[in-house]
Specification:
By secondary structure, this protein is an alpha/beta fold. The chain contains seven helices and seven strands. It has a seven-stranded mixed β-sheet with strand order 3-2-1-4-5-7-6, sandwiched between helices.
């Protein structure tokens, strides 16, 4: 069932926090590296980063020599920062609702990093993202913290713009309707569910 989260509230929430986002960011480098390995982020792949924010993972994609990166985010303030930071790198950033924008390209890798609970209809999101995967492409939904940590994190100011992170088994079942799910991890510092399109 779709949660009662208003898109306008999500936009406002992230627009208000965009200017301080990078300063408050704490990167778990080991978890991020593990997530990118699980996501198959390797040289030559075309990446779609959904809810990319200020481009937290863009340097990692570039370091791994991906063929292309498209970041999509609904917050115009987040997108403006990402564009300014990565203007000369070849990364493209689009301000749009991923559920509504027309993406003509197909992608080898689609990543939703630290953002999944902000989508009120997970089944519709997965359906949408599977539709832009190339044959053999991989969708990865991941967080660099545990499910319990994330739910605590979202219980404060973000409670009105997020839903609880579903159990990894439930998410794997949902993704398994469209993908061959072969990675399902939930530990003290990471949450990853990933599957490939046949």
């Amino acid at each position: 069932m779709e949660a009662l989260i208003r898109k306008e509230d999500i936009i406002d929430f992230f627009n208000e926090r965009a200017s301080e986002w990078d300063a408050r960011l704490v990167r778990n480098e080991a978890a991020i590296s593990y997530i990118l390995d699980a996501a198959g982020i390797t040289e030559g792949v075309r990446v779609l980063d959904v809810a990319c924010g200020t481009g937290v993972l863009f340097p990692d994609y570039l370091k791994r020599k991906t063929a292309s990166v498209l970041g999509v985010d609904i917050s115009s303030s987040m997108v403006e920062i990402a564009r300014n930071k990565f203007a000369r790198t070849g990364v493209d950033v689009l301000c749009a609702d991923i559920m509504e924008t027309d993406l003509s390209a197909c992608f080898d890798r689609v990543v939703v990093y630290n953002a999944f609970p902000h989508f009120p209809d997970p089944a519709a999101l997965i359906e949408r993202l599977c539709g832009v995967l190339s044959p053999g492409g991989r969708l990865t939904i991941a967080h660099s913290m545990s499910r319990a940590q994330l739910d605590r994190h979202h219980s404060g100011a973000a409670s009105g713009v997020s839903v609880g992170l579903m159990h990894e088994d439930e998410l794997a079942t949902l993704m398994g309707r469209k993908l061959a799910v072969d990675i399902k991890i939930s530990t003290h510092d990471r949450f990853i569910v990933s599957g490939a399109r046949a």
